[in-house]
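Lecture 7 notes: from sequence to structure.
We start with the chain below.
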Amino acid sequence: QEYLPVWSEAQTAKTGISEDWQNYKVEPMPVNEFTKWLTELNEDEIMIAIYLSDGNAITINPGELKKLLKK
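Predicted structure tokens for the same chain:
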């Protein structure tokens, strides 16, 4: 299963960068853009891993996350 990692804060994302992600830059994404992208991720069967400030992550299906964000 593939996962796309996301964070709610840039600083938390920067501290969570591992070897696999060292060549990537942390950039904010507007919520409306992110919700549009969730449709594509859902079609590609890529799950979302939401990283919390304590370093733990919760996983969610992108379609379910999109529904929650629209509430």
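Points to note: The longest helix spans residues 31-43. The CA atoms of residues 12 and 22 lie 14 Å apart.
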